[in-house]
What we know:
This protein is α+β, with helices and mostly antiparallel strands. It contains 14 helices and 22 strands. The protein has a 6-stranded antiparallel beta barrel with strand order 12-16-15-13-17-18. A 5-stranded parallel beta sheet has the order 6-2-1-10-22, with helices on one face. It has a 3-stranded antiparallel beta sheet with strand order 3-5-4. Helix 1 (about 15-25) runs parallel beside helix 6, helix 1 runs parallel beside helix 14 and helix 10 packs across helix 13 (about 340-350). The longest helix is centred in the C-terminal third of the chain and has 19 residues, at about 405-425. The two termini are about 15 Å apart.
Amino acid sequence: MTPRRNVIVIGAGAAGLMAAGRAAELGARVLLLEKMGEAGKKILVTGQERCNVTNAAPLEAFLTAFGHNGPFLRNAFHRFFREELLALLRRYGVETQVERGGRIFPASGRAADVRDALLRYATEHGATIRYHTAVQELLVKEEHVTGVRTVGGETFPAAAAILATGGASWPGTGSTGDGYVMARDLGHTLVPLRPALVPLTVAEKARAKALQGVSLRNVACTLLEATPGGKDKVLPPPWPLPPTGEVLFTHFGLSGPLVLSLSLAAVDAVRAGKSVTLALDLKPGMTFEEVRARLQREFEQYPQRKLPHLLRGWLPGSLADELAKLTPSGAERPVFTIRAGERDELATLLKNFRWRITGSLPLAAGMVTAGGVALKEVDPRSFASRRVAGLHLVGEVLDLAADTGGYNLQAAFSSGYLAGEAAAGD
């Protein structure tokens, strides 16, 4: 009888639980080490504690949500994708439903149901979980994994190890970047870590504070880079964006789903020393000419109204007040005194409301971590390291980041499943 292989999984998040379950299902002796006091802490808080497990988008659209790194996941998604994930969840009593934007959630609305299903998948197949056990280093002999050593000094032998420690975002869930250090110490190249899906900070602090809490729906965003010639260059988003979306003003700058989705491009541009502006189109359903014509009609219809009052028919009150202050006409004059040229400048503001981007909130505040172990050093068929035999790297440890909508969790599940399968048979 073939002896059971010892497989150690480091980190009991989405990727780690899936990896442990699959390896144990195939007969491996699995030890899952988790430094926190419970499994899946990040699962429990994702999707506003509802857990957006995946997305209904077709495969090609799914891959483009990961930007230029999407092709790396093609094989993984061919072998374990949405249908296989949902079938596994159903096996453990979790029904799902599709919501706006193709987002798929547990029908119960409880992220804990997803976490508990993955825990059962692992433990019912015999995986052992040890909590409050932080791994300090991977043990390697002759370029092959032989086990791990914990912070407490314990050593555990293994024929294969799966590094599933997550990123460096949301450290309160246990994602503190430990896996990056372990991978680097074994010779892996790290693509610089940056926050993705993160709110942006702006130079116009007073204006941002005045607008704090204002939420806009159905607006459009464009990132612009100032060039030496004086003409702005459009910065492409990290992945395809919807034409319009929601933007939220905060005391430090800009947030909301649309801003989060393009934030990585802004973060990278600012870090590269570029001068970056975010232009908001407050009326994307109208052309500049249509905005100008409507303003003219309303100025003629309500000549005695002051500009902030008139703009409140277009925008939330505090935003109307701020836009009025930015016009040469000022806020206190009746609109019949505003000249045509000034009216055109107001139309420009409505179509091109600009904010100078200074950066973002810290890495810990990003929904996901961009950067990580370079993909060229990982086999996409098994998520095995090309540097160290017996080592597999999964989930957010890798240089994979995608838009919101369930894409990142699906990558964690798929990579964990394939790594668990490969580790059980290494």
